[in-house]
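Researcher: I'd like a candidate sequence for this fold, 238 residues long. If you have to choose between options at a position, lean toward the conservative one.
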């Protein structure tokens, strides 16, 4: 029964992420990256998930967070800030290690594509775990699908957008050789991730429309960023 649940969870978890993957890869159709490297970055995103969860649990223990206890707003702020920092840095540094001296990492737009792909791999594992837990706890599959629908326009998109922001500023750093671009990108990526999660946790449905608007505007910015980098013929130096 557990194996069947895992199979169902995997299928359900992959589907929403696949739609975002197709959408973002479509932004680089003129000179697409090799499929094997897309697969590698996606797989890396999945494989770093246990490490990220370990780091997050260690962080929660370090700050004295207890899930069963009443949590103050200040503690909630600290918790989700740390989680945003850990996840975004883990995704970024994983990508930099994999792409080092990669001959296919030769265009500015590649920084955005590879980071987004890796982040979606990370999102797949989260989806699978959410569906698996829902079914194992006696929930109906329709409930799990409903949760995935919310994650599709929420958490999954958030991962792609926050990493996309870092990827864009990383590309600027590689083009212009100024580290400040990368620092700003990491700052904005973490900030988006942190504030979105914080708003959902603290205010729930009251701010759903506002949070959706923020993600929409961020997506518009990234589409603009893709267009800017598409027109850049200068090779990157990494």
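Model: Candidate sequence:
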């Amino acid at each position: 029964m557990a194996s069947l649940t895992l199979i169902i969870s995997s299928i359900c978890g992959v589907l929403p992420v696949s739609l975002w993957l197709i959408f973002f890869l479509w932004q680089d159709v003129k000179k697409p990256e090799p499929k094997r490297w897309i697969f590698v970055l996606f797989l890396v995103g999945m494989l770093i998930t246990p490490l990220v969860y370990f780091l997050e649990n260690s962080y929660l223990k370090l700050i004295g967070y207890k899930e069963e206890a009443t949590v103050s707003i200040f503690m909630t702020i600290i918790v989700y800030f740390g989680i945003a920092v850990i996840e975004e840095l883990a995704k970024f540094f994983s990508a930099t290690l994999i792409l080092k001296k990669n001959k296919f990492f030769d265009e500015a737009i590649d920084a955005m594509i590879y980071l987004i792909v890796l982040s979606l791999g990370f999102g797949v594992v989260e989806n699978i775990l959410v569906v698996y837990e829902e079914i194992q706890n006696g929930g109906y599959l329709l409930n799990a699908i409903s949760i995935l629908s919310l994650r599709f326009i929420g958490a999954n998109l958030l991962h792609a957008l926050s990493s996309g922001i870092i990827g864009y500023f990383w590309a600027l750093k590689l083009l212009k050789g100024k580290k400040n671009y990368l620092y700003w990108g990491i700052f904005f990526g973490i900030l988006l991730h942190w504030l979105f999660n914080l708003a959902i946790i603290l205010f729930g449905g009251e701010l759903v429309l506002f949070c959706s608007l923020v993600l929409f505007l961020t997506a518009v910015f990234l589409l603009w960023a893709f267009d800017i980098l598409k027109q850049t013929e200068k090779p990157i130096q990494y």
